[in-house]
Amino acid sequence: MLLVLVSPSSFPSFSSSTFNKSPFSTFSSFPILCSFNSFCLFPSHSTHKLIKRLNPIRNQTESDFNSKYGRTPVDDRWSLRGKTALVTGGTRGIGRAIVEELVGFGARVHTCSRNEGELRQCLRHWKDLEFEVSGSVCDVSVRAQREELMENAGNTFDGKLNILVR
Q1: Which of these, 106, 117, 112, 105, lies nearest to 165 by C-alpha position?
Q2: Which stretch is the leader sequence (predicted)?
Q3: C-alpha radius of gyration, the chain, whole number
Q4: What is the pLDDT of residues 54-98, one digit of tens each?
């Protein structure tokens, strides 16, 4: 873990605008320092503005990505390449966002939904974006359907499942 300490006086405009928004105005103790680091790393917490980010990684070569963004697709510390994930309820809301984030970090994802139409629409959308996502219709409140879902995911991922989001 890299910890960088910056004196607030080094950046007067930054310190006045940031420290006033933060409940922590001194570096007097370790918990305050940790909280301030989190505050600096996630500025959207205080500004409520989205941080601009790269599009999720698709099936593009590393050289294509490097030429476009000037860096490797996913920092190895955050890479999920070669990992598999099962996300239940992945066609809307937070579930859908989780599916897209996992794919963005390189994971292969299988999702399920009770609504076949929604599932088809999402799978078509993800296919157009070249996301590696598969899916099946399942109501996870029914034991037989859960067992079938696990069998489908097992067949899709050759028996390997690294991440389960339910």
Answers
A1: 112
A2: none
A3: 21
A4: 455 555 555 555 555 444 555 667 899 999 999 999 999 999 999
